[in-house]
Design goal:
Distance between the termini: 92 Å
Order of helices and strands: HHH
Radius of gyration: 28 Å
Shape: rod-shaped
Number of strands: 0
Number of helices: 3
Helix content: 40-55%
Length: 68
Amino acid sequence: MIEPEQTGILSPHQVPLVSRLHPEHSLNGLVIQLFGFRLIIGTLTVLFPTEIIGGEEPPVPRDASGEL
């Protein structure tokens, strides 16, 4: 008699692969990637605001005597 696992229809090592292919898991991965992309863009905007926005250069720091 042939066991159900030997038919190749639902072998135990194929079950995780099937569960990984569900649309909701792919959608969750896509949403996480989009949020990660927005987080990276936001971080770059905070770290380098003048390069991205094209603002003015920072003021020249003065030394201890107060001269330029």
